[in-house]
Amino acid sequence: MAKPFDAILKQILDDYSPDLVAWLAARFGLPPGRPEPIAPDLSTVQPTADKVFRLASDAGLIHLELQSTWGGSLPDRIFLYNALLNDRYGVPVRSVAIMLRPDVEAWSLTWEFERRQVNGERFLSFRYELLRIWKLSAEEFMSGGLGLAPLGLLTNDAASRLPELVRRLAKRFRNEVPDETMRDRLLASSYILMGLRYDEFVIKSLFRGVQEMEESSTYRAILSKGVERGRAAGRVEGRIEGLRLSLVAFLEQQFGSIPQEQEAAIRELADKTRLNAAIRQLPTLGSPTDLKL
């Protein structure tokens, strides 16, 4: 999950994983029951999947990849993660790619990944599920578990009734989330996720008047810092975080994608001088791996 918006959904998943897994289990005919998160680290060969859960009734694993933009290597990565998870745990693995905004319209709903010999003979076929959030019903999310509700704001059919849905979302959080910190986090996450489809002026207008939002320390930090990329990442850490996010974005724009281990190294770098030096290297790079941190 390489894009900063995806981190927001990943945080919601950490807090409300049963909601999303129960929704997916019902959609794909998998057994209901509370999922058990398992470590997605597949470090023997470097990759790390986004989220992996053990399903109830010994039904295997469900593997989620959360994406806000299309990456050409995604099918290859999903296949690799699926095979490695199957090898490590010895159970069936259902892989699901969840696309958060409509920049991948050419994809079919389910995808068959295949490889062929030079003579055209197919030697590998693998299928994973693809869910395009914007094509689904807002009601499916708004009436589901709390962890699903913010996704309803990203659907196409929500666009014409956003004020109503934002008020409804705030009311649900107010009535169903007694913990103020968690309510604050859900509201702020909903605000940030809307940046996938709407500009900041529209989002501010929609959330204006939501009492809990006005009182939210997270929301006040978002507005006072005014760091767009930091807002998209779900936290505002000032110039250091902005430099990290900008460097990743520039590399992806220039080369399409970057190795996950390189992105992880950038996100751990906290030295402003080194980050600025890395950004100055961009015009001379022949590939992302040429970057010296």
Explain what you see.
By secondary structure, the chain is of the alpha/beta class. It folds into three domains: 4-135, no CATH class; 161-232, no CATH class; 240-290, no CATH class. It is 47% helix and 13% strand. It has twelve helices and six strands. The protein has helices spanning 4-28, 74-89, 138-142, 162-176, 180-193, 200-207, 211-215, 217-225, 228-232, 238-255, 260-268, 272-280, and strands at residues 36-38, 51-54, 61-67, 93-99, 110-116, 122-132. It has a six-stranded mixed β-sheet with strand order 1-2-3-4-6-5. The longest helix is centred in the N-terminal third of the chain and has 25 residues, at 4-28. The protein is globular and about 60 Å long. The two termini are 22 Å apart.
Q: Provide a count of the helices.
A: 12
The chain-level structural class is: alpha/beta
Number of strands: 6
Give the helix proportion (percent range): 40-55%
Gyration radius (Cα, Å) is 20 Å
Average pLDDT: 78
Beta content: 5-15%
Spell out the helices and strands N to C.
HEEEHEEEHHHHHHHHHH
CA distance, first residue to last residue = 22 Å
How would the global form be characterised? Answer: globular
| Uncertain ranges | 225-238
The order of strands across the largest sheet is 1-2-3-4-6-5
* Largest β-sheet summary: 6 strands, mixed
